[in-house]
Amino acid sequence: MINNLNQLSEKIYNTDFKSLDNEQIYKVLSELSNQMLLQRKQNSKDKRKLYYLSAEFLIGKLLKNNLENLGIRDEIEKILLENGKTLAQIEAVEPEPSLGNGGLGRLASCFLDSLTSLDLKGDGVGINYHLGLFKQTFKNNSQLEIPNPWLEKSNALIKTDVTNIVKFGDLELKAVMYDLPISGSGQTSNTLHLFDIETADESIVKDGINFDKKDIKKNLTLFLYPDDSDLDGRHLRIYQQYFMVCNAAYLILKELQDNGHSLDELDKYAVVQINDTHPSMIIPELIRQLTQNGIAFERAVEIVTNTCAYTNHTILLEALEKWPYESLKQIVPQLIPIINKLNEIITEKYPENESLHIVRNVPMKFKKVSSINKPYYILKNIKIVHMATMAIHFSKSTNGVAQLHTDILKEDTLKDFYKIYPEKFSNKTNGISFRRFMYYSNRQLSDYITKLIGDGYKKDSNKLKELMKYIDDEKVLNKFAQIKKDAKINLSNYIKETENIYLDDSYIFDVQIKRLHEYKRQQMNALYVIDTYLKIKKGIYPAHPICVIFGAKAAPAYTMAKNIIHLILCLQQLIENDKDVQKHLKVIMVTNYNVDYAEKIIPAADISEQISLASKEASGTGNMKMMLNGAVTIGTMDGANVEIAEYVGKENIYIFGKSAQEVIKLYETNGYKSSEIYENNQAVKDAVDFIISDELNKYADLTKLEALHYDLITKDWFMALLDLQDYIKVKNKLIEKYNDPIAYRKMSLVNIANSGYFSADRTIQDYNNDIWKL
Ligand code: 26Y
Asked: Residues 640-650: pLDDT tens digits?
């Protein structure tokens, strides 16, 4: 090994390995792992291959994961130690690729990990965003966005000689493909293909993350989710999406032919998984490329329908993308004849009197109900193309991501489609990479589990159940508690170093880490903090000191989400300045929450906050990650929490709040009035009014908090006040339980032991058995 490292060091830096600085070591090690992974690439020509198309891949740092998967981590660590270095120091200089935002992107990455670990053949296809998702900073207790130039210091990508011309009306752009090798715990590797333009120009970005949205030649691959609050922004998203799928289609058809197969055999040798609607233009684009190469239109539709499969990740309207027909006509005119024909197929099959209602509560009437947007609905004469509708009609499978979510799709959101195509619908409950989120990032825990039950659980996560035989063994329970404490100390040290805030590891670490969205209800957690603060001021203390930890980014144009961040940061400062309150309560929102931070926070969590408004969280995956690391969940019966509750039993999870059915009913009947709860409950009123109190406003921009306050008492669309009292009650019970250490440790162990089902290895096997058949 050391010879290899010296050779590489000589080649790249003209010196031997031990003379390198940390950044150089990172580059040499990542070069080494890329080389080893390329040798593991799968070359079989006759197996069906998966193409996982996604706007996001939230892959996290790669080095440690790759070294572990290649089985050389210990050896490398030893060599580093001999040179006075640690792997953690090298990891610290590795930039985290900024190619994703939240659950959907992290799921895509967990899937690539599991596919590869199971030695299945499947590549990811996405975009190489130069500045990625913005980097979050805080100023005056508010979020500021700055570019994240992760590529500058990364050594992950390999430039290939694959290029394509992508046409947008008169504009032609040259695309270049970059490859990022994907490792797994098996013997093979896969690839994440990221497409880019050569003319991307980071210098057009000024003043935070602002840039000329019309300058497509320079901006196309700069940012993930550029602000789409105006038409130019929405158009840029269409450019990005088409760019991704056009390149994907070229790649898929070329690989098919290079392997000696005909275009007519596409569905035999390829399957395309469409990750939410963002890559759904792959359907008309594949049809376009097939027909251009001589396949008849009807046959092309049939082949593509048999090749594609669609995953829905949300029932929120904003995420079921609808593009103005005129915009598509302007940007991707070549798709228009195809979209029109697909529309005709559906209108003929399902004439308008059949009245399919695509989504509830759309504040507009559908004039027609058929295809692309059932097909186009007419709103003030604007035709709209509904991407989810197209994806369902012209793919072989539609799946939700947790049982409850799939049930809601079938019975409610997509029920008219379910009536037509019952056989297309299925559930695939999400899963996570146990390797990244425990075995490699919480080694102490993983090593101890291995000591107790052997390492069979690493291949078959259901074997974690064997831990149940230690449920009454106090020595074992105490050792688990010691491991949790060490993780809390590690996190506390890291936060002290990076954020200059001190967290006492004797406090309960109560963790809510996820995208900031009103439906996820970080504002409800903030109201819990206020309620606790007000009680402390009256001399009523929480049963155990608690530290509420948040990590979240708000979309730059999502004002209410940013107001919630502002509230949390103001509370953090208020409490930082109050020594008495701090004895019982701390709050911190960590800066720029990302995968790297997640890997440090998750092992340290005592409580996992999964408090979305029931029916709104499709699945959640952070819930699974924290469960696997021994946190106890407090949550609503939403998303995968429902399945977690089934696995751990109701004594080992803290459930509160209204059910999905009750919530759906409230929306249907317009039956929720937050003002009533606010007026009729003094504790709720006090907590809500504290948002605009003088005490807090010392640290605040009053207009932001007033807007939040006003919204909560007049609208509160995601019903934070509805569940607030129950939430406070149940959370305080959980805190009380913490004072019974043995009981809490047992709950923690039950959570770890019953997490096996939530391994992405299981999820991938489900997709493969039912949809992909690789
Ligand atoms: C285009 C824009 C409107 C948009 C941008 C990002 C739409 C959706 C998204 C991201 C969605 C997302 O991350 N969804 C999450 O997917 C996870 C994986 O299935 C789920 O666990 C989680 O509940 C869901 O919120």
From this structure: 999 999 999 99
